[in-house]
Write a structure and sequence with these properties.
The protein is about 15% helix and about 30% strand. The chain has about 350 residues and is an alpha+beta fold. The radius of gyration is 22 Å and the shape is elongated. Bound molecules: FE2/S2 (inorganic) cluster (FES) and fe (ii) ion. FE2/S2 (inorganic) cluster binds near residues 58 and 79.
């Protein structure tokens, strides 16, 4: 992990954001370890099904609480059986004649934790912004929800997010699946910045549905195009609405978990209002293929974290989203120190 003052500044700002840390169905009364921004967490559910996130370090001797078990509404350390409530307070020390005579100091840090869209979210400090509202992802929306991933990559979450919204690579990295090598020109698009949300639309060439993965509602067989409406919520969440001119649509909801500066995990939830009888594994297999193609590119990028100074790397007009992302991240204190140089784009 980086230890420059700049990275520490980012880290503080990133701690004040909601981050996806697990699919909700992966968090149970079996405690589970997760790492967020270098902070080890134990995730567990109480008897009412409420998820909790605590520091994964027992105050007694530093054992990982994620190795323990849940007993009712308490988390028990595996080493000496100390028990903690959801508020992080130790409530029982079995070695004492009266196990309830617990010193006030015996507690572990707890963090804000909630479930939304089939994901567990954690904020290490008071979050600056809410998780975005996406009506299509609500349970009663009538849209089918297909979870994909998590895609654990060896890179910073910023690289995974930029890749998800990079238009230039489709014909090269996903030929025949998402892009058409015969039509590599990126159509014009502009980015609107509204606080911490970037909005942009693009109608772009795509490949016809493949026989192996008939997942898109696109009947066009020659020069097909897709309509995309994006919202990129800083720092690491994207809402993408896709259409093909008819009633059929998809919503791609993507959130990248910043594990540390060199590791991330991407959670994708796709909502679709058609083809509900198709096994969801078809779409999941498709996304696994796409993400694997991307992973090889992105894990090779250096530096592992997006350089937020616009003087770094080389930006073309068709990279407008990456430029806006880097600028906005920096302006919100999420992407390093303010740059003094800005190239014309
Ligand atoms: S280390 Fe947790 S109870 Fe002793
Ligand atoms: Fe890609």
């Amino acid at each position: 992990m980086t230890s420059s003052p700049e990275a520490v500044g980012d880290l503080q700002a990133l701690r004040s954001c909601w981050h996806a840390v697990a699919f909700a169905d992966a968090v149970s009364d079996q405690p589970q370890r997760a790492v967020l921004l270098g902070q080890a967490l134990v995730l567990w559910r109480d008897s009412a099904g409420q998820p909790h996130a605590l520091n994964d370090v027992c105050i007694h001797r530093g054992t990982a609480l994620s190795l323990g078990r849940v007993i009712g509404d308490e988390l028990m350390c595996p080493y000496h059986g100390w028990r903690y409530g959801p508020d992080g307070r130790c409530v029982a020390i079995p070695q004492l004649a009266d196990p309830t005579q617990v010193p006030g100091k015996a507690r572990v840090a707890t963090y804000r934790c909630m479930t939304r869209y089939g994901l567990v979210w954690v904020a290490l400090e008071e979050p600056r912004w809410p998780v975005p509202d996406v009506p299509e992802l609500e349970t009663a929306s009538g849209w089918q929800h297909v979870p994909c991933g998590p895609y654990r990559w060896r890179c910073d979450a910023s690289r995974q997010i930029e890749n998800f919204t990079d238009f230039g690579h489709f014909p090269w990295v996903h030929p025949g699946l998402l892009g058409d090598p015969g039509r590599p020109v990126v159509p014009k698009h502009t980015v609107q910045v509204d606080g911490h949300v970037l909005g942009y639309e693009i109608v772009r060439p795509e490949a016809p549905n493949s026989e192996e993965f008939p997942v898109f509602a696109n009947e066009q067989t020659t020069a097909p195009e897709r309509h995309n409406r994006y919202q990129l919520h800083l720092p690491y969440t994207i809402v993408l609405r896709i259409g093909w001119g008819g009633k059929r649509g998809m919503v791609y909801f993507f959130a990248s978990q910043p594990i540390d500066d060199e590791d991330c995990a991407g959670y994708l939830v796709i909502a679709r209002n058609y083809d509900h009888e198709q096994p969801i594994s078809v779409l999941q297999d498709f996304e696994n293929t796409i993400f694997e193609q991307d992973r090889r590119m992105v894990e090779s990028q250096r530096p592992e974290k997006v350089p937020f100074d616009l003087a770094d790397e080389m930006h073309m007009k068709f990279d407008a989203v990456a430029v806006a992302y880097r600028r906005a991240m920096r302006q919100q204190g999420l992407g390093g120190l303010a740059a003094t140089r800005e190239p014309a784009v």
